[in-house]
Specification:
single chain; about 120 residues; mainly alpha; c-terminal domain of poly(a) binding protein; 5 helices; about 0% strand; rod-shaped
């Protein structure tokens, strides 16, 4: 029995890969064998990138909070410890946003944190 080379399933599989490889440079967008490798690699990078994005945003939030807290005369680690002591549960994203958009409220939060460290 001859091998099926141009069947519907085979075409669909190749078509799916070629659609994913659209816009790639050179043979990566036109040649199925090369495109298959390029799409696999792109998928691996995308998966890894989704994990890295979370780390990168956390780093950004910490840097922003740290800069805002240092302007108030405190270190980031002292500030976070003081928030835990005073039972203030705000995540880093919210704190970072507050430091940028609502400086008065953030200053009040830092003042509360300072009191918690003293007492």
């Amino acid at each position: 029995m001859p091998r099926a080379v141009d069947g519907t399933k085979h075409k669909d599989r190749r078509k799916k890969i070629m659609e994913l490889a659209k816009g790639y440079y050179g043979r990566r967008s036109t040649n199925n064998r090369v495109a298959k490798d390029a799409v696999a690699k792109a998928g691996a990078y995308a998966y890894r990138g989704r994990k890295e994005k979370k780390r990168d945003f956390r780093k950004l939030w910490i840097a922003r909070i740290s800069a805002a807290v240092r302007a108030e005369g405190m270190s980031y680690s002292q500030f976070m410890h003081a928030l835990k002591v005073s039972n203030i549960e705000l995540n880093r994203k919210a704190l970072s946003n507050m430091a940028i958009e609502d400086k008065a409220a953030f200053s009040a939060l830092v003042a509360t944190a300072k009191k918690a460290l003293e007492g």
